[in-house]
UniProtKB/TrEMBL annotation:
Phylogenetic classification of the source organism: Bacteria, Bacillati, Actinomycetota, Actinomycetes, Micrococcales
InterPro entries reported for this sequence: Aldolase_TIM, Coproporphyrinogen-III_oxidase, Elp3/MiaA/NifB-like_rSAM, HemW-like, rSAM, rSAM_sf
Origin species: Microbacterium arabinogalactanolyticum
Main subcellular localisation: cytoplasm
Keywords: 4Fe-4S, Chaperone, Cytoplasm, Heme, Iron, Iron-sulfur, Metal-binding, S-adenosyl-L-methionine
Claim: S-adenosyl-L-methionine is one of the keywords in the record: yes
Stated name of the protein: Heme chaperone HemW
Amino acid sequence: MAGPLPLGDPAPADGRLPDGLPVDATTPFSAYLHVPFCRVRCGYCDFNTYTSSELRGARQDEYADTLIREIDLARAVMDEAGAVRPMDTVFFGGGTPTLLPAGDLARMLRAASDAFGLRDGAEVTVEANPDTVTPQVVETLLDAGVNRLSIGMQSAVPHVLAALDRTHDPENVATAVRAARDAGLDVSVDLIYGAPGESLPDWERSLDTALELAPDHISAYALIIEDGTKLARQIRRGEVAAPDDDLQADMYELADRRLSDAGFAWYEVSNWARPSTGSGTHLHQSRHNLAYWRGSDWWGFGPGAHSHVAGLRWWNIKHPAAYAQRLALGESPAAGREQPDQQARTLERVLLQSRLAEGLPIDDIAETHRERVAELISDGLVDAASALRDRRVRLTLRGRLLADAVVRALTE
């Protein structure tokens, strides 16, 4: 289970948005549908997820109906605020969405589409554990309107998967990719590097295996030790070593080099996409994640999910049983909300947009900090030509390795 929810103002029981909220109906709108179920809790994970022994009063077989109640509430709330618009992207995340029957995912998607509509060409993604993907599951998702599958590979090396408490069969990754490919879905694979005991050759093997699958998109995330996780406790007790920063930097550079050589282009610090076979210019980027990084509007459905509309942020109560109880009473499951001030919004914009290959407009940086761009160029962290020609902060490879330092320089 994840850590505590943020502090914030109380959220109204009816979920109503504040009067006068400056909604812009031209802002792209997305939906995130959280499925909080996992067979096994991975030692590094701090997401809001639950194994069967932790549900205490919540049932997986009733979850789709519960979440659809929140969709109905969302439609009424957005309608009253004049904020209804078709969805540009939909993302089923977790947890393991494919632990639910594919028909339940289809019903949830249909309810969201009925409530808000889907724009032509909308991106609809389902995250999946490789062990849960079959041709029948993929066919049901395809028929429902899903067009992208994001497969949690993490590693191709058994001892690395064991260190991460990942229990899937590595051979099933190729089976899952093949099933998605045969159905015509876009395919993304997720990797993690820097696990205890993982060497540079181990990581190279995982990269090579992922590339052999010929996906459209690859995410490669450095392992981060989150407080409260099993892995954090193991490191604190000295049972396993903490990730080595220098080794993780070497792993990132290897990933960028191998992926670039294979025709992938980075578009966010931890994400690479392949050009389409059509025009050769469109990339198979995760448009849903880009909506987050660019500050679009989205409604997060499910326990612990976060939402953002016109600068207002709110988050749902965490436990599935409490979430279901609120909705059964006709109440919003929101636990709290906030409207960040200008300083907080600027910090967030710098934090998120500076990680993108398209870069951050220099004019979006507080005026008192713009002079620091020159220092970052001098330190080799920001591309000089982009700053001078386009007035955008674009990270160099070294800058991507030190992205947090760039953010601090531009905000503190």
